[in-house]
Amino acid sequence: MKVTEVTNTERGESIIRRCREIAAWTDVPGETTRTFLSPSMRGVHDLLRAWMEEAEMSVEVDAVGNLRGLYPALRPDAPRLVIGSHLDTIPNAGAFDGVLGVVLGIALVEELRGRRLPFAIEVVGFSEEEGVRFSKPFLGSMAFTGTLDAMLLKIKDVHDVSLGESILSFGLDPAELPAAKVSPRAFAYLEMHIEQGPLLESVSRPLGVVEAIVGQSRLFASFTGKANHAGTTPMRLRHDALAAAAEWIVAVERIASVRDGLVATVGNISALPGAGNVIAGDVAATLDLRHADDAVRSASLDKILLEAQQAADRRGVKFAWRETMDQDAVPMDESLTSLLECAMLAANVQPVRMMSGAGHDAMIVAAHLPSCMLFVRSPGGLSHHPAESVLAKDVAAALTTGMEFLKLLEARSTSTGHEA
Ligand code: HGY
Ligand code: MN
Ligand code: MN
């Protein structure tokens, strides 16, 4: 095997080791669960800060808990490339969703070995992308783009702690949120992320470039019927909230299954009072609906809501819902995406263009900065699962592609003499 290949794969393995070291920081022993500004996030910040400072980066934590490492350019007022992803996880997560993009950003800076570029590099570890703690995703990237509405500081988690209080108890100051906004000298955003799906494996490719991130609708649904005795209440007299929800969930699956590219998921359901011998009176459920075409997503949502209402009406049950996200599909910047493809070719990787079914911080950042995404193959297409993995050779390919991307940006800034 060529020396560079061994070195590259070893480099890939060292990046994987770092991701697994970060995965050990968890709120729940025995699994990887790290929610917004939880105590385990401090350990992650300390690890990343050490690696960043060793790579000659200055490090700070902003008012929403984003970790921000800055590698200076040749000139103090130089433009700035932002490389980022998220540090929070879903419950019982794998080791690579989000974290890989931050560790790869630091690895790129390490590869420069102190050489300064015509642009600075800011590596950002966003504090909240999954939306687990406050049922509100993208809090980190929203603060980073200056779009975190102060009203959101009042939203509460399941322990009745507000977002503002959680920031204060982490030792940060919500009043400083405006200072979290990205520098006006930022000119581009790169997010490297695991694909979290089966496509790259199905075409035997290590990397892909994202053309667009699909749109998402997320909501809470509630079915309110009448709790009653399971043994004495005849079927015709019931107002069974769980039966209404069950019929609706099957309808959700049916509607999504017949439309290309549409995915719909009821990922969480709770039924009260929750005893086996009591007809459920109150059910709360979540809906996650996604499609690349916003009109299709909107029409499908209308159908799904109508099904819920009809399932409820048939049982004398009340149906209500509360939207928590209505995010349009977000195209990536075409010129950066083409540059990323050239970088892949320079790294001897055949580019694959694809959609992202998963949401990413890039969908928030892209409204403020030209953005691009590089996907790394997910073996088994598995993610949002503890067995989520990556291959060392694919991580090495992403690092090499990232280095080629920096070279192309450097050449572009030198030839045009202005922002990279
Ligand atoms: O849910 C998503 O699409 C992302 O993984 N947070
Ligand atoms: Mn995720
Ligand atoms: Mn992610």
Report on the structure:
This protein has 420 residues and is of the alpha+beta class. Helix content is 35%, strand content 22%. The chain has helices at 3-23, 39-54, 99-112, 139-144, 163-169, 199-202, 241-257, 294-313, 334-346, 362-365, 392-416, and strands at residues 58-61, 67-71, 80-86, 120-126, 186-194, 207-213, 215-224, 228-229, 263-265, 269-272, 278-279, 282-291, 318-327, 330-331, 353-356, 371-376. The strands form three sheets. Strands 1, 2, 3, 4, 5, 6, 14, 15 and 16 form a nine-stranded mixed β-sheet that branches. Strands 7, 9, 10, 12 and 13 form a five-stranded antiparallel β-sheet that branches. Helix 1 (3-23) crosses helix 3 (99-112) and helix 9 crosses helix 11 (392-416). 48% of the residues are buried. The structure holds (2S)-amino(hydroxy)ethanoic acid and manganese (II) ion (MN) (2 copies). One manganese (II) ion is lined by residues 90, 97, 130, 384. Residues 90, 97, 130, 384 line the site of one manganese (II) ion.
Sum up the overall morphology in one term.
globular
Uncertain regions: pLDDT < 50 for 5+ in a row? 1-6
Q: What is the string of helix and strand elements?
A: HHEEEHEHHEHEEEHEEEEHEEHEHEH
Strand fraction: 15-25%
Radius of gyration: 23 Å
Give the secondary structure arrangement, pairings included.
Blueprint lengths: L2 H21 L15 H16 L3 E4 L5 E5 L8 E7 L12 H14 L7 E7 L12 H6 L18 H7 L16 E9 L4 H4 L4 E7 L1 E10 L3 E2 L11 H17 L5 E3 L3 E4 L5 E2 L2 E10 L2 H20 L4 E10 L2 E2 L2 H13 L6 E4 L5 H4 L5 E6 L15 H25 L4
Parallel strand pairs: 3-4, 3-5, 5-16, 6-15
Antiparallel strand pairs: 1-2, 2-4, 6-14, 6-16, 7-12, 7-13, 8-11, 9-12, 10-12
This protein binds (2S)-amino(hydroxy)ethanoic acid (HGY) and manganese (II) ion (MN) (2 copies).
The site of one manganese (II) ion has 6 residues, from loops.
